Amino acid sequence: MTAATTTDVWLVVGLGNPGPSYAGHRHNVGYLVTDELASRMGGTFRAHKSGRADVVEGRLGAPGTPGPRVVLARPRCYMNETGGPVKALATFYKVPPERIIAIHDELDIAFGTLRTKLGGGDNGHNGLRSMRSSLGTGDFYRVRAGIGRPPGRQDVADFVLSNYSRVETKELPFQVDHAADAVETLITEGLEKTQQRFNS
What we know:
With 200 residues, the chain is an alpha/beta fold. The protein contains seven helices and seven strands, in the order αβαβββαββαβααα. A seven-stranded mixed β-sheet has the order 2-3-4-1-5-7-6, with helices on both faces. Helix 6 (166-189) runs antiparallel to helix 7.
């Protein structure tokens, strides 16, 4: 029996940097989406016994129906070290890569839009690169929240580590809600239906 058949748990990882100084940055949209999912699950983040991530365990799905088991995770490290905690959690919960979802910011997608996919490269994203390295594969799901490219000649690193614009801040709750919906749909209905509905 393979790992995929011995467990029905999904590991949903919000990528970001820990601490209040990073909280509002574009790079931290993954944290915001896991916050929304935790709220839907009626849970609050607590330290995992590994000491390397905060987690919420519960079920996602329509009210009154016992949806799939889900572990929401926020690594307690900087973005470029994400892989270690994710690998530790995947091992602890016996979650294979094909049941891992990474939620992250995406420069090549306009703000307010989403893409979902399975596998692929890291496209210069340090969090994805670290996950690929630690897991030994890139074959996990990604929910990619668009942040767009920096205006003018602004450095990419400065852009992702800066707060959303005033206009974007007003729209951000809709994007976060939309991304959380995409995660739920991915878990309960699969990739094809999720892409049809959310890859606008």
